[in-house]
Each structure stands twice: as structure tokens, then as C-alpha cells.
């Protein structure tokens, strides 16, 4: 079923929800739902890197799994190049869309050589094993900065950064158009992180790939993303081009996150650090109105706790879900200053 004609868009999410049922026992009735992703609409354009950032439990990892059809959506739709994802065969999805996880070692069989690990998706898809495969694996390893002779080694012989390169070679084997990168650098040392980020950048340019990069690190997202979606409790709080988001954050939550970055960023300084009060509320019982109102320094009772703000465009390509978006230069009150 063809739904779209916009050639720039690779993936479109329309009001996507994922609610996980809560039961006290396997056969007990459903007591409640965890609203892990709760009405997310966005597009991923061809050739871009969309960063998805937020605290742990905000729904970003669930969102990534939904985009790859690893788990079914509760409602809404995800459309890939004009075709609804749920109408595509998983085999076809895997050819077009791949994933690289945070812990590459955990996704590799320790008894398999690197050659077997990288060639596995090709063999599963009907490619015959032999001299041609050896050449293909060698080329893939070289494309990620490893050596051809690394293919005879086992995962434990590699450092974390090298394992991530092997995982990337495997993800590239079927020549996908899209790769979901789920915290791919968060387990690595800072110097190795930079090498992997630069490699991703290079590979994206060479192959015209599209990335969604999920991370809790704003520094990483700043480095790698063309646009950034900030998630809070299963919803998009703000979505903008990276420079716009970092220079003119309009959502109080984004502003607080940016103020907590250890390195000073444009328009910020350490003395302006905003520390949010309280914990992130439970996604099983999200607050009424704006989900951020229980922690927002500028929440207005009677509005913010009652009416849910929609994600609206406040500038070209800059969307925010807030009744009182910050204007450029506006500071949050320092009620929680440390
Ligand atoms: Fe804060 Fe209200 Fe905006 Fe929510 S809608 S972020 S509570 S000002």
C-alpha cells in the first residue's frame, strides 16, 4: 500500500503509541499500562541523522525498537518509503533497516569468528559462502577501519571500540538504507567514542545512509545529529535542527538538560545550571496536562496541569510541546539552583 509521495522522507511516524500491559501474574487481568511511547509523530529524512535524546525511561529505546518493527505498535502507523511497516515482511525490513546496540559484545556469539559474525546476515539472505564471501567480509572490515586478517579472530580478542566496528561491519553487510544506533558509544572511553562517531559520519557520507541515533548524551547528539528530538515520558517535548535546539531551546526541559552539560555550550555557562526537582514520574501513571508540569520551574497551575500541550511549530522546523515556550535569551528561574 503506497501512502506517501514525498521523496525526501524515509520514515514517517504518525501518532505512534506503545503501551505495555502491567499484570500481577502471568494469567492475571491487566491492571494498568506503561505508556512507554505515547503519541509520537515525526519524520526521518533521507540521508540525515536524527538524534533522539532523553533521560532513562523516556521511551527512546522503545521508540527505536518500534521503528525497526522489533516490537509491534499499540496504535498509530510507521511508514517506510511510502509503505506501512506492518505490511512489510520482516526479511525485507532487515535488508533495509539495521541496528547497532550499545553492547556489541552482547550481540555476538563468542564462539563465532568475526568472519562468521559479519557474513551471517548475508548467508541468512541466501548468499553462498566461499571465496567471494571472504572478499566481501574483508572489504567490510576495511570499510570500518579494521584489517582483513581480523576475520579469523574471536570477539574477546577485540577492544570495545573494535567490537563496535565489527558490529557496524555486520550492520552494513546487507547494504541497508537505514541504521538505528542505540547508545552505540556510551560504553566506550571518550577518545574511542570520538573515533567511532567520526567513522559513523564518514560511512554515512560514503553510503548515503540515514541514521536515528538514540542517546542520553547531549554532547554526542550535538556532535553527530542534523536534527534532535527531545523525549520526556513517552512524548516529544522539542524537535529542531541541532544548532537551533542548542542555541535557542524553547522547552524548559530542553533548557534544563542543556544547562547540565559539563562543557559550556553556546549561550550557556556553568553558573546557570538548572537542577530539576524530583524524579521522572512513572510512565504507568503520567501526570495530567503537560507531563513535565511536576518538575517545570515555570509551570502555571490551572493550565499546565490541566491541558496537554501539542507539539507545534514555533519557527521553521522547530517544534515544541509547551504552553509557554521560552523566547531566545529567556532564562528559567533558578529555584533549583545548586
Ligand atoms: Fe512547563 Fe507548562 Fe511548558 Fe509544560 S506546558 S513545559 S509545565 S510551562
Structure explained in plain terms:
By secondary structure, this protein is α/β, with parallel strands linked by helices. The protein has 9 helices and 12 strands. It has a single domain, classed as P-loop containing nucleotide triphosphate hydrolases (Rossmann fold, 3-Layer(aba) Sandwich). Helices cover 27% and strands 23% of the residues. The strands form 2 sheets. The protein has an 8-stranded mixed sheet with strand order 6-7-8-3-9-10-12-11, sandwiched between helices. Helix 3 runs parallel beside helix 5. The longest helix has 18 residues. 39% of the residues are buried. The N terminus is likely disordered. Bound molecules: iron/sulfur cluster (SF4). Iron/sulfur cluster binds next to loops.
Amino acid at each position: 500500500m503506497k501512502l506517501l509521495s514525498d521523496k525526501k522522507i524515509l520514515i514517517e511516524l504518525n501518532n505512534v503509541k506503545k503501551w505495555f500491559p502491567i499484570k500481577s501474574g502471568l494469567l492475571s487481568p491487566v491492571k494498568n499500562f506503561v505508556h512507554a511511547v505515547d503519541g509520537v509523530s515525526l519524520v526521518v529524512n533521507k540521508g540525515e541523522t536524527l538524534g533522539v535524546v532523553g533521560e532513562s525511561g523516556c521511551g527512546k529505546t522503545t521508540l527505536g525498537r518500534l521503528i525497526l518493527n522489533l516490537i509491534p505498535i499499540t496504535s498509530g502507523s510507521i511508514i517506510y518509503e511510502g509503505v506501512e511497516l506492518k505490511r512489510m515482511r520482516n526479511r525485507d525490513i532487515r535488508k533495509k533497516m539495521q541496528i547497532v546496540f550499545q553492547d556489541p559484545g552482547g550481540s555476538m556469539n563468542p564462539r563465532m569468528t568475526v568472519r562468521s559474525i559479519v557474513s551471517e546476515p548475508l548467508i541468512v539472505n541466501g548468499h553462498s559462502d566461499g571465496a567471494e564471501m571472504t572478499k566481501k567480509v574483508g572489504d567490510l572490515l576495511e570499510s570500518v577501519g579494521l584489517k582483513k586478517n581480523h576475520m579469523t579472530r574471536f570477539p574477546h580478542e577485540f577492544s570495545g571500540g573494535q567490537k563496535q566496528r565489527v558490529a557496524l561491519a555486520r550492520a552494513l553487510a546487507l547494504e541497508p538504507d537505514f541504521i538505528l544506533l542505540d547508545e552505540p558509544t556510551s560504553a566506550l572511553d571518550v577518545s574511542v567514542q570520538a573515533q567511532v562517531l567520526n567513522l559513523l559520519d564518514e560511512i554515512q557520507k560514503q553510503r548515503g545512509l540515514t541514521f536515528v541515533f538514540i542517546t542520553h548524551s547531549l554532547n554526542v547528539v550535538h556532535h553527530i545529529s542534523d536534527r534532535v528530538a527531545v523525549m520526556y515520558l513517552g512524548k516529544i517535548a522539542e524537535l529542531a535542527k541541532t544548532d537551533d535546539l542548542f542555541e535557542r531551546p524553547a522547552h524548559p526541559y530542553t533548557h534544563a538538560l542543556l544547562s547540565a552539560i559539563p562543557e559550556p555550550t553556546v549561550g550557556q555557562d556553568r553558573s546557570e545550571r538548572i537542577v530539576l526537582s524530583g524524579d521522572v514520574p512513572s510512565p504507568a501513571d503520567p501526570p495530567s496536562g503537560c507531563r513535565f508540569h511536576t518538575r517545570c520551574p515555570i509551570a502555571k497551575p490551572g493550565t499546565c496541569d490541566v491541558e496537554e500541550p501539542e507539539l507545534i511549530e514555533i519557527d521553521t522546523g522547530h517544534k515544541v510541546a509547551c504552553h509557554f515556550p521560552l523566547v531566545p535569551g529567556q532564562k528559567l528561574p533558578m529555584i533549583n539552583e545548586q
